Batch of 3 targets.
Target 1
Amino acid sequence: GENVEQHPSTLSVQEGDSAVIKCTYSDSASNYFPWYKQELGKGPQLIIDIRSNVGEKKDQRIAVTLNKTAKHFSLHITETQPEDSAVYFCAASMGGFKTIFGAGTRLFVKA
Amino acid sequence: EAEVAQSPRYKITEKSQAVAFWCDPISGHATLYWYRQILGQGPELLVQFQDESVVDDSQLPKDRFSAERLKGVDSTLKIQPAELGDSAMYLCASSWGGTANTEAFFGQGTRLTVV
């Protein structure tokens, strides 16, 4: 079955710097890769996603890249702000089925 | 803005008791998911519905857990009997469904504590 590994588990950056979180997946059949932000006591919130027919997608300060050959995908946050502090999860699925989440990255943005 | 509704937000129960969680997905969403999230870990899929049908319950501990979505709208997840190891956040999510509409939206979750 699918396995998703996420690194780092904790990331601390200075406000205004960039943050990068990386994930790898094992099943080449996976074709949908969402990223979620989870704040304390709340459910995960979808922030960006990418499908296997696209190499990169950007939405304001957030971007995601996908390397299908290497089975890697990454989340990039530029110009980080204190409100970006949260836990971020990557996930991989086959068209919305068999969704597997990574273990999460706790991001701290220091003001 | 449409949201996935879950209740209760918090539940404390004694081991061996029965407990139930309710979820109302975003209107029109055909796919409904139940996830379990242990503190410090990512969500783990328990069961996935397409309308009223179960399409994946491979990770659901069927000896004690059950889930239903009788009319293809809201859903109930039940645990009987509850065990100490069931303490976790139970999350419901929904999506329009189909391979092209996979964006899933989560509710606030139900925090279960088994004592």
Target 2
Amino acid sequence: SQQGEEDPQALSIQEGENATMNCSYKTSINNLQWYRQNSGRGLVHLILIRSNEREKHSGRLRVTLDTSKKSSSLLITASRAADTASYFCATDSISGNTPLVFGKGTRLSVIA
Amino acid sequence: KAGVTQTPRYLIKTRGQQVTLSCSPISGHRSVSWYQQTPGQGLQFLFEYFSETQRNKGNFPGRFSGRQFSNSRSEMNVSTLELGDSALYLCASSLVPGRAYEQYFGPGTRLTVT
């Protein structure tokens, strides 16, 4: 079963605009990660945020985590056509030795 | 450092056949995980191996099996293929097991069952 659920399912923006994707999850977590997948390829790790962190930056990426709302957001600033991809959040439950669970992803299209 | 490699990249099989997929992790990585990705179900966890031992198994039927060798390379096998097994199979490696570590994914094997 999916732990994380991304929202929206699809997003289309113009180059230069900011893109925001949200992830909600159900159970308490240790960490939350964001991954990017170009069409039909493997996933690429973007950023990991721990449950005791609220915000993290990496280049044009900004991730926030609100454990009280069980949600996270990924902001891509000044988007480029090359950012066109699907973005997934992945969570690990705080309870037990459980595998990383991925959401179904947000498909981002950046139009040049 | 070479990335995660998966072979073959594409595969077409017929129902009832079996298939073996291979994954070579990044050098030095000892943990390998497998995922099945379909448009309907998204990314679903299959197995995780560390030091030749299966640490975790997802909710898949017994037709799906895997193993890891002493050099950390891993294989997964699907027997008696069904149409619903058509998917992108992704392998990921990490230094050690544990969710605090990022996973490095291979390009995947696209399996089509006809």
Target 3
Amino acid sequence: NAGVTQTPKFQVLKTGQSMTLQCAQDMNHEYMSWYRQDPGMGLRLIHYSVGAGITDQGEVPNGYNVSRSTTEDFPLRLLSAAPSQTSVYFCASSLGTSAYNEQFFGPGTRLTVL
Amino acid sequence: SQELEQSPQSLIVQEGKNLTINCTSSKTLYGLYWYKQKYGEGLIFLMMLQKGGEEKSHEKITAKLDEKKQQSSLHITASQPSHAGIYLCGADLLRSGSRLTFGEGTQLTVNP
């Protein structure tokens, strides 16, 4: 099992550019989520999904879109990147449709928006 | 202000010493998680506590949940350099079963 994989590992964008952060898991987990980690702010939930076709907003959803067409993949889209979106992004998944199970985290994507 | 406050923010100890990290919530806890993060890497699950008074141990790490105080503590016995990293607590504060709030983390350095 590869676990939770994220691509790319590093990305530099210019303000206004769009991009998609990829997240995939091979554990057949129903629950997947995206967090951003910023100094002094800890991890903050952006969006989450409890199964294919079902997504919901977390604490800081503005500026991000998600979709869940398959159980394995949960991409995060930045439609028009802003410097405030400079952060480290983590994708996580867990068995079952809640966060009450162990969440497996990916290695992260470090994004810089100039 | 953070809904989950961790203390201390950073900790430097000599190898072999015991240490405690605290996680205090401003709201009722419906599940408390502890994770460890190495710099530049993802989070590794340590333990999950759900009931008041619950205590779990894994190797030299013990976590306890005090429901009345809305607080959890993580205790490391006889610390080793391998324990170094950032420890984060996360909790379900909305009773959503799906949305976790995390503390800012505690940076632990263990000097040999």
